[in-house]
Amino acid sequence: MKKTFPLEKSNHKPARVIESIKSDVRKYIKRERSKKLAEDVDFIDFNCRVGPSEESAKTAHVSAINAAIDTAAAAATDGAIYIEIISKPGRRTRKETDRKY
What we know:
Elements (H helix, E strand, L loop, with lengths): L1 E5 L7 H20 L9 E9 L6 E3 L4 H11 L4 E11 L11
Antiparallel strand pairs: 1-4, 2-3, 2-4
């Protein structure tokens, strides 16, 4: 998803518009995670960028996307924020341990 969300809508307060944007993002992530995985894929991972514009968007982790949306909304001067969420296959890696059994 690559989308520019307007922060101003008629008959809606700015705080409700931001909550609506966060809701749309959560729905998109939930929809992507519910898709069937390929055999060699363990989970769906995401590359996320959020900012006041496409040029100034910064990378954010999917778990911190709500805070990034709040920060971008506060910094937005043109009344819109840009959100880019791209799904990619994720594979688990085994952690090295120092235990000896």
